[in-house]
Amino acid sequence: QVQLVESGGGLVQPGGSLRLSCAASGSDFSTSIMAWYRQVPEKERERVAFIGPSGGTSYAPSVKGRFTISRDNTKNAVYLQMNSLKAEDTAVYYCNDMGRGSWGQGTQVIVSS
Fold first, then answer.
1. Closest residue by Cα to residue 67 from 48, 52, 54
2. DSSP structure string for 41-72
3. In this predicted structure, what is the pLDDT of residue 94?
4. Which of 15, 76, 79, 83 has its CA 20 to 30 A from that of 64?
5. Is the Cα dihedral 64, 74, 76, 101 positive or negative?
């Protein structure tokens, strides 16, 4: 079973930046499609971005141009660089191994002045 641990969340002002990290345990990370999701209370979890094994990426329209997903297969890690943050980006952010269905515990991001 793959275990995922997110970190890097916090409180940031509008227009600011944060970098989220997700550390994965287990083998075959380099072959996994990895994603970041976010969720706010009473709403469905929303996929923000995903990255394939070779680095191909896809983004939700709401974050395209502001967020960048990347991975380091030597460290079994995936990252989410978030720039120009807005209040509506406030959510709990989750790391997901799309193939294996594994989820992390989430990290809270609050964008507020």
1. 48
2. TTS--EEEEEE-TTS-EEE-TTTTTTEEEEEE
3. 98
4. 76
5. positive
Structure tokens at 110: 């609050």
Helices (H) and strands (E) in the chain, counts: 0, 11
Which amino acid does the sequence have at 111? V
Can you read off the two tokens belonging to residue 97? Answer: 């191994």
Number of Cβ within 10 Å of residue 27's Cβ equals: 9
Both structure tokens of 72: 């380091």
Are the C-beta atoms of residues 48 and 67 closer than 8 Å to each other? yes
Phi, psi for residue 65 in degrees, rounded to 5: 90, -15
Angle formed at CA 62 by CA 89 and CA 102, multiple of 5 degrees: 70
pLDDT at 26: 77
Q: How far is CA 24 from CA 39, 61, 84, 97, in A?
A: 21, 27, 27, 9
Please say whether the beta carbons of 97 and 32 come within 8 A: yes
Residue in this structure with the two tokens 């997700």, named with its chain if needed: 22
Residues 7/15, Cβ–Cβ less than 8 Å: no
